[in-house]
Amino acid sequence: MKKFRFLILPAILFVSACGWFKSPPEIGKVLSEHFKNKIYKDFDTTVYDSIFVRTLDSLDKDFINPKTIKSFYANHYSEPQLVTKFYINGSLDSLVSYLENSTDHGFNPRIFKTDEIKALLATLTANRFKKVEQTYPVIAKLEALSANAYLNYTNFLRFGVVNPRNIFSRYYIKVKRPDSTGMFGILGSESLADTLRKIQPKSEQYQALQKAFLNASSESERRILLLNMERFRWRMPETGDNYVMVNIPDFRLTWLDKQDTVITMKVCVGGKRENGYEEKLKAFAKSGNLDDKPKNHETPLLFSKINAIQANPIWNIPVSIAQSEIYWMARKDPYYLSNSNIKVYYKDKLIGEPDTINWSRYSRDKLPFKFKQGSGGGNALGKFKFIFDNSSSIYLHDTNNKNGFNLTNRAISHGCVRIEKPLEFAEKLLNDDYAYDKLRVEVDMLPVDTTHMNWYRKRMAKKADTLKTFQLKPAWFGPKKAVPLLITYYTAWAQNDKIEYRPDVYSMDDKLWAMIKKYR
To answer: Which of 169, 182, 373, 450 is the most buried (most CB within 10 A)?
Structure first.
């Protein structure tokens, strides 16, 4: 008998600690005391449970996270947590107020079922029920709709409405998204009002865009502001205070140290994909013919860290460029490769005389060669390449085509980012006078420190020695500390107390609008 008593004791303690199985349960006690209405003392948890489950099942098709909500309430015995904790103290009314004011963030309160929640609160507050059974559907629906609205509202403000990685093929930034643990924490909060207050966006950029959105009279301007408010809601990786940002629509690189600009310069980015790209890609998938393959040189959006500088870089020419450009140039002009300092490799072995290759024997879609452009003045990467880890073989680099920086639309590259002031950028990255002078000498520039002139003289002597063949080779330099780099996309932002606007060069605004306009 003693053993049996020890076995049953934990179960009794568990049930009594839950509170939901008390007679009356917590919800019945709270409402009974508040309304001075005895019917709530007869609150039957078993009957309510079945009604709540049916209510959830009838509503979940309109929920964004139905599994999370159902799991939360399954773990809490279907207890009306929000109504129990937040009806009497007015927090559910505060929720309605926040939902009604969600227009400040560009949302339509209708998407949160705000009017229904407000009506259910009014019905419960009217206290005209004759029997406790009449309250069950009201409490169940109020609980379910409030939980869904509360969760959606907090998720939208903390993480954004959409996951950009799901709609943009070249969006490689790992933005943080809601998870079940975080959503359980939101639903289980002890202070709904505090949570709603804390999740309001605090960034100066967001608040400036929000203010402009509320003041804008033009619907087109409101749309642009709304889209960029959404972008600033996305939870980006931590860059720290000191980082480099490339904003594609602005065609500009900016190095920021807290709020200060360390350096800024023009950039050229990847060209826009062909019109009708998606349809053409489907045609290419069917035919497999490279002539049907549409061009897409758009620079990907990514986050990484710049960890190396290569002076006098070698350009490993991508297969796509070899097929679409190098192949045709070599067929047209047999001396194009040698004149362009492009070396050809077959099975990783250098071909001594690429001018003798009979290109008509090879199909461009099955080229067995690799191409590398050697260091030097004609190299497409110029004198410097700035390297960071990424899966797209993208980097920042110098260029010989300086005229590109005079263009208004600088979406002209094959995908990499050409920077206007590579030497100045390299100096900031190295942050070391000794290393910087070494780098200058490698590209045949005088050192800044005259005590380093001996390096320069030796190099010039080697180049002038006619008895030896001087070969220009890449030289590697590393910053003392890797610098975070964010390549991103904003078509509106706050700067110097006004909103700057830029054209939607990759039509990403259009694609984003198609996804979020249903929340308007």
So the answer is: 373
In tens, the pLDDT along 217-237 reads 999 999 999 999 999 999 999
Alpha-helical (H) ranges within 292-432 are 319-321, 327-332, 336-339, 422-430
Q: How many CB atoms lie within 10 A of CB 37?
A: 14
DSSP 8-state symbol, 366: G
Cβ atoms of 139 and 123 closer than 8 Å: no
Q: Compute CA distances 362 → 151, 284, 365, 367, whole Å.
A: 59, 20, 9, 6
**Residues 139, 140, 144, 147, CA torsion sign:** positive
> Across the beta sheet with 342-346, what order do the strands follow?
315-316, 369-373, 342-346, 349-350
pLDDT of residue 182: 97
Q: Which helix (H) or strand (E) holds 161?
A: none
- The C-alpha atoms of residue 494 and residue 231 are separated, in whole angstroms, by 13
Whole-angstrom distance, CA of residue 328 vs CA of residue 199: 56
**What is the sign, positive or negative, of the torsion defined by CA atoms of 203, 209, 212, 213?**
negative
Q: Are 244 and 306 in contact (CB under 8 A)?
A: yes
* Amino acid making up residue 92: L
Separate counts of helices (H) and strands (E) for the chain = 20, 16
Residue 271 tokens read as: 């060209």
User: Is there a contact between 381 and 358 (Cβ–Cβ < 8 Å)?
Assistant: no
Cis omega (within 30 of 0) on the bond before 474? no
- Separation between Cα atoms, residue 50 and residue 505, nearest integer Å: 54
18 has a pLDDT exceeding 80: no
Sign of the four-CA dihedral 460, 464, 468, 471: positive
DSSP conformational letter for 38: G
Helix (H, G, I), strand (E, B) or coil at 429: helix
CA-CA distance, 384 to 396, in Å (whole number)? 9
Q: At what angle do helices 422-430 and 433-442 cross, to 10 degrees?
A: 140
pTM: 0.90
Beta strand 417-419 pairing with 260-270:
antiparallel
* Separation of alpha carbons 505 and 508, rounded Å: 8
Is 90 within 8 Å of 82 (Cβ atoms)? no
C-beta separation of 285 from 429 below 8 A = no
List C-alpha distances in Å: 126 to 90, 129, 339.
Answer: 15, 8, 88
The count of C-alpha atoms lying within 13 angstroms of the C-alpha of 67, restricted to the half-sphere facing its C-beta, is 3
